[in-house]
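pinging the channel bc i need a second pair of eyes. not urgent but kinda urgent?? the chain im working w is below, pasted from the shared doc
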Amino acid sequence: MDKLHNFKKYLHKFLSVITFLTLITTIGHTQTTDSTFTFTELEVIKLDSLLQSYEQENAIQKVQIELLNHQLINYELLHQQDSLHINLINQNIGLLNDRITLYIDLTDQLKPKWYNKPIIHFFLGAVTITTSAIVLNQIK
């Protein structure tokens, strides 16, 4: 157990030294005065204006996306309303077709029978008058 404890101590010291050396080399490389990383004041201003224009474009695109999402929601609502309207029109068409069928049945029911035609009434009237005249002539 004592060996395990000593091993952990050495391992801890070893990792601390490695970490320290890594930090030193990292700090040494970040503080270089390389001329490729220095910007003139004009370049900084251009970069700043470029970043601001990109931020404005990004903000405009976010607003456009939000407006398009609202428009999409409105189109979906309009689609639902149109579907409901079409269903109601189809029901109305069905009811009107039923009404037409009922009117056809009603006209079939109300058609005059063979004996209710005017020509038959004319001949029956003529026969009745002629028969009456003949009977009256026979009686005198």
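so The CA atoms of residues 52 and 58 lie 10 Å apart. and The helical segments are 2-30, 41-110, 118-139. — does that match what u expected or am i reading it wrong
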